[in-house]
Design goal:
The chain is α/β, with parallel strands linked by helices. The chain has a single domain, classed as Rossmann fold (3-Layer(aba) Sandwich). 38% of the residues lie in helices and 23% in strands. The protein contains three helices and four strands, in the order H-E-H-E-E-E-H. A four-stranded mixed β-sheet has the order 3-2-1-4, covered by helices on one side. Helix 1 crosses helix 2. The longest helix has 17 residues. It starts with a helix and ends with a helix.
């Protein structure tokens, strides 16, 4: 099911996003959706895009921080299971 959604999102993004962009999946459900979309963009559309996600709690060991993956820069497309007021998204990039 998640891979099918990823392929659908990838097809839509391939049609609508002509400039470079990266994907961001807010914890927790957005992570799987953004990862599946990133994979489908690469496999089906031959597009290599950056991908990042956030942790609910920052890590203070190893690499540390709240954001994992590619550095957030340029156009960022946020993929999540539900977007309403954007409250979860506003706090996820810190």
């Amino acid at each position: 099911m998640v891979s099918r959604l990823g392929r659908f999102y990838a097809a839509v993004l391939a049609e609508t996003e002509t400039e470079d962009f990266m994907l961001f999946g807010p914890a927790y459900k957005g992570i799987a959706l953004a990862a599946a979309t990133t994979a489908a963009l690469y496999q089906d559309q031959d597009r290599n895009v950056g991908f990042a996600y956030n942790r609910k709690e920052s890590k203070d060991h190893g690499g540390g921080g709240a954001v994992v993956g590619a550095k957030l820069s340029g156009r960022v497309v946020i993929i999540d299971d539900v977007l309403t007021a954007g409250t979860a998204v506003r706090g996820s990039g810190s």
